[in-house]
Amino acid sequence: MPPWFQTLLGLGLLALVAALVVAVLALRRLAVRAEAVLAIVEQELRPLVARTHALIEEARGLTHEAKGEVERIQTVTDHVSDLAHGVARVLAAVSGFTRAGQLIGLAVGLRRGVDVFIRRMRRREGGDHE
Q1: Inside any domain, residue 113
Q2: Which of 7, 37, 72, 80 is deepest in the core (most CB within 10 A)?
Q3: Structural domain of residue 86, as residue ranges?
């Protein structure tokens, strides 16, 4: 092998080694930066996770309270429905006796309106309970 070719191979090898050293140093700097960014993310993430857990617990409590309120509303609407049925029976009995039957017919219509209102509220809450 001629000496000029050996020199050329040596210079090529030296350039390759220099490029590898530069690449390794760049990778090292990248790793150091990535570690710093990861440390910052960890510092920011811990409080966010804690806040998220607190918000989830608060949402659970609010959901539980809302469920209780819906149950109370259901009880009240059941009582109103029972009362409307009782009033309707009394009014139906009285309506045959006087001219006030027309007014009683109006009251029966109102009762039916209340029944429809209650039925629609129940459907909105997730099911018809009648």
Answers
A1: yes
A2: 80
A3: 3-125
Residue pointed to by tokens 């790793």: 31
Does a structural domain hold residue 30?
A: yes
Rounded Cα gap, residues 91 and 103, in angstroms: 9
pLDDT tens string 35-53 = 999 999 999 899 999 999 9
Assigned domain for 130 exists: no
In a domain, 29, yes or no: yes
- Helix %, strand %, coil % for the chain, to 5? 90, 0, 10
Token representation of residue 70:
């819906």
47-74 pLDDT per residue, tens: 999 999 999 999 999 999 999 999 999 9
- Choose the weakest-confidence range: 63-72, 76-85, 121-130: 121-130
The count of C-alpha atoms lying within 13 angstroms of the C-alpha of 124, restricted to the half-sphere facing its C-beta, is 9
Number of domains in the chain: 1
Contact between residue 83 and residue 107 where contact means Cβ atoms under 8 Å apart: no
Q: Are 84 and 92 in contact (CB under 8 A)?
A: no
